[in-house]
Amino acid sequence: MNIFVINSGSSSLKYQLFRLPAEQPLCSGLVERIGLDNSVITHKVFTADGEQVVRRTLDLPDHRAGLQEVLQLLTDAEIGILRDPNEVEAVGHRVVHGGESFAATTIITAEVKREIKRLFPLAPLHNPANYLGIEVAEQIFPRAKQIAVFDTAFHQTLPEYAFRYAVPEELYREQGIRVYGFHGTSHKYVAAQAAAYLGQPEARLITVHLGNGCSMAAVRGGVSIDTSMGFGPLAGLVMGTRSGDIDPSVIFHLIGQLGYDVEQVSNLLNKRSGMLGLAGDSDMRDIGKALEAGDKRAALAYELYAYRIKKYIGAYAAVLNGIDAVVFTAGVGENDALVRRLACHELDFLGIQLDEAKNNVRAPGLREINQPESRVKILVIPTNEELEIAKQCAELLDSGT
Ligand SMILES: Nc1ncnc2c1ncn2[C@@H]1O[C@H](COP(=O)(O)OP(=O)(O)O)[C@@H](O)[C@H]1O
Ligand SMILES: CC(=O)OP(=O)(O)O
Ligand SMILES: [Mg+2]
Known about the structure:
It is built from 15 helices and 14 strands. The protein has 2 domains: about 1-150, 2-Layer Sandwich (Nucleotidyltransferase, domain 5); about 200-385, Nucleotidyltransferase, domain 5 (2-Layer Sandwich), CATH 3.30.420. The radius of gyration is 21 Å and the shape is globular. Strands 5-4-3-2-1-6-8-7 form an 8-stranded mixed sheet, with helices on both faces. The protein has a 6-stranded mixed sheet with strand order 11-10-9-12-14-13, with helices on both faces. The protein has helices at about 65-75, 110-120, 125-140, 160-165, 170-175, 185-200, 250-255, 260-270, 275-280, 285-290, 295-320, 330-335, 335-345, 355-360, 385-400, and strands spanning about 1-10, 15-20, 25-30, 40-45, 50-60, 90-95, 105, 145-150, 205-210, 215-220, 225, 325-330, 365-370, 375-380. Magnesium ion binds near residues 211 and 330. Belongs to the acetokinase family.
């Protein structure tokens, strides 16, 4: 069956078309700068002879226009893969916040959409864009089953002492105020890859997802037992534009003493903090260049970013009572050797010993970057949230639900 996967962000949209059960990617793409001038679509078609890349620059006022253009590419006379949209049996959507309602992959109904909408305030950068992706896909692929795969689902296994906050109980019971955790699809995917590589289904793993958003998870036997993001995708690690952990007193000070309103605080901590706040850029490649040019702010930002990861490694080593592997993944985790080196620095007491030379080698696929004598494996594993979503959609459809 053909499954089209959409990972819809506020101004971008990633997609992939898979044929299952072969897990064969037929094409993938990225639509950037939606709603701005000169939107760009980069569309890759995978064939037996390699890949063909098509890049189009055009004005796409909204996600609907973006997906229409993608559909045109999918059904194009020359490079198209489909004759018509009805050849897509299911559309899998990454939905970031599923609250406590969704512990598993779910067929999207009007009720599911209402729930995704109800959760907008909890994931303001993500759920509205995910919702829009669903609405547009319903029109473009009217015969396909629309399926939601939630970032939060994998973390629904956290024990209560890990997911509750120490606030009055009714805030949890009546308002759902608790840790949810995010990037679950990615943590689940790389944890499964790592356990298979180690040949240890019960492996104690620390998975470190470093993309635009960043989070870590403690995983034992394929089950998430703790994670660094919380009620929304703002807690924990330092991110591109998000602060990560911050003392709530700062928020009272911003509001009480400095005259911020709630909207301004949210904007500050979600969009103007993290690496952007520390170093003036949110993209790690730009900060890397600044660092090479001797920029002191970039150097501090790198140290702070890596220090936070290191602290969570220590915490999760305790939570797991030992570690079999630390796994780095996503844009920064897969590509930035300096972040990995700083994060693993002086952790030999835990049995974590990075091999500098292996860490600096760029190679595709899963690779091991620890010294041979390191008790803990350090792995770089490319994430593939889209494939994991497609697989979960196929499982759901095969189960006849
Ligand atoms: N070669 C690289 N070196 C360092 N950082 C990289 C590299 N390639 C991508 N990144 C970083 O990865 C981040 C984006 O990661 P990604 O997983 O694509 O995020 P998202 O899915 O959240 O958009 C950006 O900060 C980008 O700079
Ligand atoms: C949940 C989250 O932070 O997602 P992203 O990394 O795609 O922003
Ligand atoms: Mg991502």
